[in-house]
Amino acid sequence: MHLQPIDVVETIDRDTFQEKYFKPRKPLIIKGLAKEWPAYKKWTWEYFKEIVGEKEVPVYNNIKSDSYTPINKADGYMKFGEYLDMVAKGPVELRVFAFNIFSEAKQITKDFVYPAHLVSHFVKQFPLLFVGGSGSITHMHFDIDMPNLFHTQFLGKKRVLLFPNEEKYKLYRKPWEVLSLADFSHFNEGKINLEKFPAIAMANGYEVILEHGDTLFMPTGFFHHMEYIDSGFAMSLRILDPSPLVVMRGVWNLFGMRLIDNLMKKALPKPWYKYKEKKVYKSANKELKNTIVP
């Protein structure tokens, strides 16, 4: 992989953000954005337990999906407070994914401010919380609804890989899904199987470690793989893309692509998986050929 660092700023004005990052779809780390929010100091394990600890939430393990697994299928359910106790005590390979905690406790929406001074069209109905124990992994994928994101990390550290959507064939993106066929777990330790997935070596992307208070601007369609170095949580603020085509693609992914994939996984799981696997390697091999022999 050809990885470069992400630009880092403490603060940024709207014109610079729009011209250098939002419009060209380039990621950015903003260090100072969340430091003025009450959430920066207020949001702790105990705080969340107190306000929404009795809510039952879906949890997800580190196992990659197979031919039978629908997109975003939970691996179990437990009370949020019980889960937070597990996470706070030590390593646990379980995540809480896209939890709209704010619909359960509306008062905490006062703990942060939408950065409207940088960009418009926030989807304010769906600020989402992501929680992970030390060692938990979010496997390589892009967000199905194609938003732009401000993703702010709270507590601990998280290692992130990012790739623009045009790198999808080098990443072995499965057709009819948002996921990569390849396993990027512990990529920083050289554990990606490049014999099985050789096109990954040509992929151009970014690597960053997010720390408490860091806000990552992640443009629409970006593939991302995240590994929790420490137990922690993050909040994503979603932004509609100004392109109607991107918005329509997100709608199709949610209500067309996902429905068809889930139906095929139920009806013909193994043949459907083999078909997609064949398509994945055909696209990746074409990338390899075009790169080696211009």
Fourth-tier CATH superfamily name: Cupin
Can you write the helix and strand succession as a string? EEHEHHEEHEHEEEEEEEEHH
Count the DSSP helices.
7
Category from helices, strands and their pairing: alpha+beta
Provide the β-strand percentage band. 15-25%
Description:
- With 294 residues, this protein is α+β, with helices and mostly antiparallel strands.
- It has one domain (2-292): Jelly Rolls, CATH 2.60.120.
- It contains 7 helices and 14 strands.
- Strands 2-3-12-9-14-7-6 form a 7-stranded mixed sheet, with no helix packed on it.
- β2 (8-9), α1 and β3 (28-30) form a beta-alpha-beta unit.
- It is globular and about 50 Å long.
- The relative contact order is 0.19.
Quick rundown:
The chain is of the alpha+beta class and 294 residues long. It has a single domain (2-292), classed as Jelly Rolls (Sandwich), CATH 2.60.120. The chain has helices spanning 14-22, 39-42, 45-52, 80-89, 101-104, 244-267, 269-292; strands at 2-5, 8-9, 28-30, 56-59, 76-79, 95-99, 128-132, 137-141, 148-154, 158-163, 204-210, 215-218, 223-228, 232-239.
Q: What layout of secondary structure does this protein have?
A:
Elements: E1 2-5, E2 8-9, H1 14-22, E3 28-30, H2 39-42, H3 45-52, E4 56-59, E5 76-79, H4 80-89, E6 95-99, H5 101-104, E7 128-132, E8 137-141, E9 148-154, E10 158-163, E11 204-210, E12 215-218, E13 223-228, E14 232-239, H6 244-267, H7 269-292
Parallel strand pairs: 1-11, 2-3
Antiparallel strand pairs: 3-12, 4-5, 6-7, 7-14, 8-13, 9-12, 9-14, 10-11, 10-13
Helix pairs in contact: 3-4, 6-7
